[in-house]
Amino acid sequence: MAPSLTRRLIALGSSDPDRAERFLAARELDGIDEEVLLEGLAVAPDPDGALVVLVRLLEKVPSLRETVDAGLSRSEPLFRLLGASEALGEFLIRHPEHLDVFEAAPSAEPQGADPVALRASLLRSVGADPSSARPLASRTGADAWEALRIRYRRHLCELAIRDLTAASPADFLPVAAAELADLAAAALEAGLAVARAEAAATFGAEAVDAVALAVIGMGKCGARELNYISDVDVVYVVDADEDSGLDGSTVLGIGTALATGLSRAVSGTAREPGLWQVDANLRPEGKDGPLVRTLGSHLAYYDRWAESWEFQALLKARCIAGDPELGRKYEQAVGPLVWASAGRDGFVDSVQAMRRRVTEHIPPAEADRQIKLGAGGLRDVEFTVQLLQLVHGRADESLRVRDTTSAIAALAEGGYIGRSAAAEFDASYRWLRLLEHRIQLSQLRRTHLMPVREDALRALARAVQGVMETGKASPEALLEKWHRTKRSVRELHERIFYRPLLNTVANLSPEEAKLSPEAAQGRLAALGYRDPQGAMRHIEALTAGVSRRASLQRQLLPVLLDWLAQGVDPDAGLLAFRRVSEALGTTHWYLGMLRDSAAAAERLCHVLANSRLIADLLEVSPESVAWLGQEKELAPVPLDAQWQEIQSKISRHEDPSARMRLVRLIRRREILRTAIADSAGLLDQDAVGNALADADQAAVLGALRVAEDQAAARGPLLTRVLVVAMGRQGGREIGYGSDADVMYVHRPLPDADPAEAQRQAKEIVTSMSGLLTQPLRPAVLAERVLQLDADLRPEGKAGPLVRSLDSFAEYYRRWALVWEWQALLRARPMAGDDELAADFMRLADSVRYPERLSPADLTEIRRIKARVEAERLPRGADPGRHLKLGRGGLSDVEWLVQSIQLQHAARHPELRTTSTLGGLHAAAELGFLMEREASLLAETWRLASRIRSANVVWTGRASDMLPSSRRDLEAVARWCGYSPGHASALEQQYLQLTRRTRHVFEERFYSLSQ
Amino acid sequence: MNRQQEFVLRTIEERDVRFVRLWFTDVVGSLKSVALAPAEVEGAFEEGLGFDGSSIEGLARVSESDMLLQPDPSTFQILPWRGETEPTSRMFCDILTPDGEPSPADPRNVLKRTLAKAAEMGFTCYTHPEIEFYLLESDQLGPDGAPIPIDKGGYFDHVPGGVAQDFRRTVVNMLESVGISVEFSHHEGGPGQNEIDLRYADALQTADNIMTFRTVVKEVAIQQGAYATFMPKPFTAFPGSGMHTHFSLFEGDSNAFHEPGAEFQLSKTARHFIAGLLRHANEFTAVTNQFVNSYKRLWGGGEAPSYLSWGHNNRSALVRVPLYKPGKGQSARVEYRGIDSATNPYLSYSVLLGAGLKGIEEEYELPAAAEDDISSLTSAERRVLGHSPLPASLYDAIGTMEDSELMAEILGEQVFEYFLRNKRQEWSEYRLEVTPYELHRNLGIL
User: DSSP state, A1006?
Assistant: First the structure.
């Protein structure tokens, strides 16, 4: 049994078979063999659309049925065009006299139309003589405009037919794009002839004829790679014949009239709709500048005023219509300007801004439908090609071509990109352009978006296939191929930019591109390396030789170089990478990780180019690079586990400095682990503070054990020692490179002599603090030693370094000053005897949470704070930028929290915490601060802490200042989570938050009202 | 080297210019100048001119005192009062940090930022100032402790043979020769008081022009054996010197303040703009009226506006909408009458425009227009009508500004902070002073 009509319609691609069946029954189709019809519809990209237009055409021109009746050999062009372009179908319905376009025999390998013939045809349509030097139309006004447009669209039909019946539309694409540009140029030429005729009425025929106007195509039209429909970018150059006797302003007046007249002829309102917009906004001074200029005026502008990007736009400039002599002069004059632009100041910046623009500014709703914008889109290809042209075209004239496909070919030919990469790049570009062409052809609308509706997608999938292609075209396959192409364009980026750099030094393979050293350095500089010579040396070292590592790095370096270039300091990153790589040399996991884990390699490049601290630590402990590949290795090691490791390690050694070395290595390792996890965004700020505090605590535990063992070796132990953490260490809120504030407590054993015990305790703590800082052999490289600072003890520096618990109790009972109560608020046992710790904390609680704080005490705290503000700030430091002691800085927040704790913690146990953020939270819960105030203070405190850490991470050195230099600020801003280029935003944010915080602080802390 | 820079160098060569002065303005609005030998100009164009910013008011953080001056070649002018024998010229400069970024503490940059914000909203800003000043016999005080005015004329008086006539003519000629167009000039209300109105121009250019204007006026006065002062209120008995400024916003080539048929032909944009000025006036008064003396003008009666109010052609209101002339839609504008002649024009225009733009952005409601003479109302009436007073003293103004998020945003955190510090200092110095008032009033009886 023969398949039903419905099934056959579905099989040939109909999306709405019911409707198609109704149209098949239309009166106009009576007598046409259904088989012939179905055979024809099967080749139409959109059979439903083609059928509807066909019926309407037959209604107007019954004789068309002969073409249909003759079968596919004659009707294929008809069905393909009607099924690919509803807009051109409508045109043929409006102007059926042009149905003869279907009479030309289709070719599998079509040629482009002759530009001279196109020009002549369009000129004749308005009654102008193509052989005249300045053709003058015999028709004017709407009559001429319509004739011009109808002729243009006829040629457009002819081109579309050849395009749609080509065996390989991708091969034909550059030809089609060039013909579209030629056709546009011809239309402008005819428009100019009309404008001349119209202007003659105002200015006199003789005057108009004495004025030369050259139409310079910019953008895609200039490059001869136009789309089916897009604005045509132009600028105008005007000149008058020498003997014309016209004054300058008349010449400009006539030139302007010609320019506006030709634009009107092409796009003004008339019965036959306009073709496209003639866009002259790329002219000097843009919209505000005069529409036409003399050549001298153009050059003066480019000499004096033009911005970097304007020169890049000139890369595409070409005379497309009007006076060829004048046009050639223009081209010759501006050409050199383009190629000098890569040497201008700010070129690298403008390139980087351009690159960001490729991916930014896409409306979110369009993001996954954009063919043109976004990473892997057409703009991305064009940007890459143009950048390489500008960098290398200064020295190599063979690259000075306008259109993208020729430029890719020239770059490959000149050895600036690899041949296989070039081939792939070219194929991707052509395919994306083909998609764009087919989408635009359908409605002749300027769009760069993938269709959404399934039937439109199906028609598109069929339209991009060549006539010989037999594969099933489905919407899914189309989208799949599109995504694949986008991905490939994105990945080709590194192969195209960076791989040829390697060949300069490493001779990868003869068929790959090879750059000269000068070209390679020029390219590195354009990509953001400040010392391209040094970078080349590192690349050479990394890729030289026959080792497995070198060969693997030859493979990977192109990607790595790109990742490094995105960091703040690519040069330092590359150097650090070289060191790490040399240290790890042949270890198999390192090579495996680089090869198999792109995420790990990217993370490595990121930390190396953005953090001196991490780079230094990785250089001396390269085995830690392994963590980058394993997220679970980046989780902080709990204190218990660290302590166990320390115990077992020191149990195997006798010599105190050998034991201490192991302890300090563990601390260095944990700091690095935390920093890497931090950079990867695996830890929040509170977790970072905790992890760093744990690493310090473990080291202090180890040092205390070693010191006690030392004492025990000299005689019996007479006392128990306790190390109490104070300050931010007590609150477990430290940053990288913080000192540890501590106090030392001891309690003599029951039968020991108190004086002897005191002496021994002092000996133990002195030796412990020395063990943590003294130089060791072999040295612990790149370590930031842990300084213990005991200045917060009773009586400060004047008091004894260590006191017995009884002495503490006595002191606090009789003498303690209110600032000492305050200092105790963040006391936390860190290392030592547990029982002693419990007793000491009981004592501390009785002091730091007083039942009542007298007004005099409160005033004293305020007074001390006021004095600290005035005196402690380093000389010459800007209080607005000092993170710790500055206006609204860390200490403002901490003092405010502590003053609340001193006043109220006795009655509100929720306030009893050593953590500043915890205290803030509790104070807000209890209503001592407003919610708004507490969250402001918390935000400021977090940001200031984060910047302090970022200072260490970026420079490897501690600093309490918000950096002033832009580069430092940029690096710090990135560590604080700002996107590249937002250094000033961080600065403003910090200054604003601290100003507001100071406001709250002054109101809450200094105000007399309770 | 671009063509404009070349033009400067060529002019220096051809006119045999001996000195090139680089001009810039500190945060309080004093003009600063560095003279360069012509040979050094080229280097200054290329690399900027390094200088120690730490000793300039408000410029630098002490930690990085090195700054760069980047001359703006489009502002190059020969200074006419230096004569033809050894021509001297000047250029305005942008101040850059050592990394070549615009310094956040450069008042010119503050205004540029504000104008960029306006541009983002689609506006270009034009301003035209009416600058009042006194012409005195010298900068020495008379026997009664008051300055000595050069004549005894009054508003629009023609003083025959007076220095003032001649003086204004010379000033106007000189201004024209440095490219500043003058709209209007006349004798003002006080003896020796003059007013010169500059033609409207883009706000940045106007601010540059005001700085040049002050220099020209002072130079010409000296040449004529007199002394000119822009002090807000030099005489207790006579009116102060204001700098009423007209603002207009353009969207492309059409005036955004004009709407035919609306009340006073004022568009919604204009109404929001005025509302912005009024809502934030107290916050920015410390900038527009920045000296202790400024408040003697604001509260000294006469035409000085002391209450928040606006009116259509009401000369007692703080914001005045000038009488609309039919067919002159393009000249629709708003006049702010609070500014005094000693302000830093870059900062004043920034805060005024910033406040107006805020009004537009947030669509502030405009209260009803004042129709009466505000100063003749009783204070209860003013309260009822919502005309609250402007700050009574520099001290009050500082206090209000300190709490203003908008001012911090417009000026940038650095200028904001520095400005306040500087003004607090001025206030505390003033407070120490024993004034003639106290001596006259108290010495004899206490």
Answer: I
The DSSP bridge pattern shows strands A278-279 and A232-240 to be parallel
Pick the last residue of a domain from A103, A125, A153: A103
Q: Are A57 and A201 part of one and the same domain?
A: no
Partner residue opposite B99 with nearest CB, options A878, A965, A999: A965
- Contact status, residue A214 vs residue A328, Cβ threshold 8 Å: no
Check if A932 contacts B (Cβ < 8 Å): no
- Whether the CB of A981 is below 8 Å from some CB of chain B: the reply is no
Domains and CATH numbers, chain B: 3-102 (3.10.20.70), 113-390+423-441 (3.30.590.10)
A482 with A364, same domain?
yes
**Would you state the pLDDT for residue A1?**
47
CATH number at residue A291: 1.20.120.330
Cβ neighbours of residue A831 closer than 8 Å, sequence gap 6 or more: A697, A700, A701, A704, A722, A723
Residue A752: inside a domain: no
Rounded to the nearest angstrom, the minimum Cα separation between A344 and chain B is 11
Residue B63: per-residue pLDDT: 45
**Are B63 and A961 within 8 A, CB to CB?**
yes
With an 8 Å Cβ cutoff, is B30 touching chain A?
Answer: no
CB contact under 8 A, A995 and B413: yes
Mutate to test the interface with B, among A311, A967, A969, A988 (most CBs of B within 10 A): A988
| A37-47 pLDDT tens trace | 898 998 999 99
Mark whether A64 and A211 lie in a shared domain: no
pTM over cut 0.80: no
Domain-ending residue, one of A103, A128, A156: A103
Q: Nearest CA of chain A to the CA of B3: how many Å?
A: 5
Tell whether B72 lies on the interface with A, counting CB pairs under 8 A: no
Q: Number of A:B CB contacts under 8 A?
A: 49
Report the C-alpha gap between A150 and A624 in whole angstroms: 72
Minimum-distance CB partner of B4 among A304, A876, A961:
A304
Partner residue facing B63 (CB), from A305, A877, A988: A877
Angstrom distance (rounded) from CA A605 to CA B345: 49
**ipTM greater than 0.85, yes or no?**
no
Task: Please state the separation of Cα A616 from the chain's center in Å.
Answer: 27
Residue A642 belongs to a domain: no
Q: Which residues of A touch B4 (CB under 8 A)?
A: 304
Tokens representing A375 are: 């990473």
| A775 falls within a domain | no
Q: Are B349 and B286 in contact (CB under 8 A)?
A: no
Q: How many domains does chain A have?
A: 3
Provide the shortest C-alpha distance from residue B1 to chain A (in Å): 9
- The percentage of residues in chain A with a pLDDT greater than 70, rounded to a whole number, is 96
- Cβ distance of A992 and B408 shorter than 8 Å: yes
Q: Is A277 found in the same domain as A380? A: yes
Domain carrying residue A965: 855-1006
In a domain, A399, yes or no: yes
> What is the rounded distance in angstroms from the CA atom of residue A751 to the CA atom of residue A754?
9
Asked if B63's CB is within 8 angstroms of A964's CB, the reply is yes
A908-959 residue pLDDT tens: 999 999 999 999 999 999 999 999 999 999 999 999 999 999 999 999 888 9
Name the strand (E) or helix (H) holding A826.
Answer: none
Return the axis-axis angle of helices A419-443 and A378-393, rounded to nearest 10°.
130
Reading the block at residue A203, the tokens are 């200015």
The answer to whether residue B55 neighbours chain A at the CB level (below 8 Å) is: no
What digits encode the pLDDT tens for the residues A472-482? 778 888 888 89
Question: In terms of domains, do A68 and A202 share one?
Answer: no
CA distances, A283 to each of A215, A218, A988 (Å)? 12, 9, 37
Substitution target from A991, A993, A996 for chain B, most B beta carbons within 10 A: A991
CB contact under 8 A, A304 and B99: no
Residue in the structure block whose two tokens are 């003013």: B382
